[in-house]
Structures are given as C-alpha cells and as structure tokens.
C-alpha cells in the first residue's frame, strides 16, 4: 500500500499542471526528465512483479522458466495495437499484466480481477465446481464489505445473490459487462496516456557512429 501511495504521488506530480514558478529553463527540464525516469522505473518493477506472480484464476501457477517463455515484451508495433480496442489489450498476456499493474497503482485492481474470475467461471463445466466458484466470487467481490468489493448497483447484487443458489455460467454476466464498460471508458484511456504505455510504443532510436576518415 505504501509503495502504491508513493507511486500515485509521483504520478500526480508528473501528470498534473506544471508549477509556473518552476520556469522552463534547463534545470526545470532536467527535473521533469528525472521524474519521468523515476515513474518508468516504478512501472517496470510493478509489471515485473505481475509477470512473475500472476496466474489465471483457478489455474495452478507455472514455473518461473515457463513464465519467462510466456511473457515476451511486445514490439512497439504490437503495443500500438492495444490502442485500437480494449479487447486487443486484454488478449495480450503482457498487455493484461501491464493493465493490472496500472489498475493496482490506481487502487482499483479488483475490477480486472473480477473480470478474469468471471472469464474462468464461464469455462467451468462441473456443476459442483460451478457452485463453489460462484460462492467464492460472491464473497470476494459482490457481498457488502467484500475484501475486493466492486462498484455495482444494489439490484444487480441482489440478482446475483439469487442466481448463485442454483449457479449457471451466466450468474455474473450483467455485473461483468458493467465492470468491463467501467474499465473501457475510464481506466483504459488513462492507461493509453500513461508514460509507461507511451514508452512501450516508442521505437528505439538508431544511432550511427561516424566513419573514420
């Protein structure tokens, strides 16, 4: 929590309006560049944690070796595809991990965790597992004062409470759609504007050394 708070403090200072008293001289420019490097360093540390420790809900974690093979840093062209549609971002394992790191920095990671839990839930075939997973999702994300309570209306919560009594794959469809829309319209645009995402899209500069004469 403390790390996240520090991150937000840095983010607010960098993204907020520039202090007029700071001026626009070399020292001011150097300060802004230093702030940018600090922000990117924090992002990369946070993303590295998610790549090494995240796993799909309901599935066992894989070994570190297989994770390193699974999560490959995208090229600038691949990263740019994420801006075309929210689904493009979610379909990329690296993009999903980056988006989770972003949501964690904004203290709303429960939204993507709920969405992922619902995706796993819909693939469940066993009635017994479907019932147990439905109860877990409800206690983790839906009920009042749940540890990862998502922001949905009372009527939807009541409907879910009724549906999980005889769980089906569509128990959480309405809530999942609302959370998806919330992320697509709010967090997703902010992610695309983040310095971390812009850095992924930036093509490396090719420098050529002068030939000796």
TrEMBL record:
Keyword Cell cycle set for record: yes
GO terms under cellular component: cytoplasm; nucleolus; plasma membrane
Acetylation listed as a keyword: no
Location in or out of the cell: Cell membrane; Cytoplasm; Nucleus, Nucleolus
Domain RGS: 85-201
Keywords: Cell cycle, Cell membrane, Cytoplasm, GTPase activation, Membrane, Nucleus, Phosphoprotein, Signal transduction inhibitor, Translation regulation
Predominant localisation class: membrane
A Pfam family the protein falls into: RGS
GO terms, molecular function: GTPase activator activity
Biological process (GO), any one: negative regulation of signal transduction
PROSITE patterns, per the entry: RGS
Signal peptide (from-to): none
Subunit structure of this chain's protein: Interacts with GNAQ. Does not interact with GNAI1 and GNAI3. Interacts with EIF2B5. Interacts with PRKG1 (isoform alpha).
Role, per record: Regulates G protein-coupled receptor signaling cascades. Inhibits signal transduction by increasing the GTPase activity of G protein alpha subunits, thereby driving them into their inactive GDP-bound form. It is involved in the negative regulation of the angiotensin-activated signaling pathway. Plays a role in the regulation of blood pressure in response to signaling via G protein-coupled receptors and GNAQ. Plays a role in regulating the constriction and relaxation of vascular smooth muscle. Binds EIF2B5 and blocks its activity, thereby inhibiting the translation of mRNA into protein.
Descriptive protein name: Regulator of G-protein signaling 2
Protein source organism: Trichechus manatus latirostris
């Amino acid at each position: 929590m403390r790390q996240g708070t520090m991150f937000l403090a840095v983010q607010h200072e960098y993204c907020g309006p520039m202090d007029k008293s700071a001026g626009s001289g070399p020292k001011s420019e150097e300060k802004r560049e230093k702030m940018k490097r600090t922000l990117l360093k924090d992002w990369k540390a946070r993303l590295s944690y998610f790549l090494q420790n995240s796993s799909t809900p309901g599935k066992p974690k894989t070994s570190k070796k297989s994770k390193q093979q699974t999560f490959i840093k995208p090229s600038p062209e691949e990263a740019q595809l994420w801006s075309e549609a929210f689904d493009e971002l979610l379909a990329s394992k690296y993009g999903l991990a980056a988006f989770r790191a972003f949501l964690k920095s904004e203290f709303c990671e429960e939204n993507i965790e709920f969405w992922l839990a619902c995706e796993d839930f819909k693939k469940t075939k066993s009635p017994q597992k479907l019932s147990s997973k439905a109860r877990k999702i409800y206690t983790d994300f839906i009920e009042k004062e749940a540890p990862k309570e998502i922001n949905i209306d009372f009527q939807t919560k009541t409907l879910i409470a009724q549906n999980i009594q005889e769980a089906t794959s569509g128990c959480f469809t309405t809530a999942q759609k609302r959370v998806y829309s919330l992320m697509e319209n709010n967090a997703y645009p902010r992610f695309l504007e983040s310095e971390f995402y812009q850095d992924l899209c930036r093509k490396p500069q090719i420098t050529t050394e002068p030939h000796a004469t």
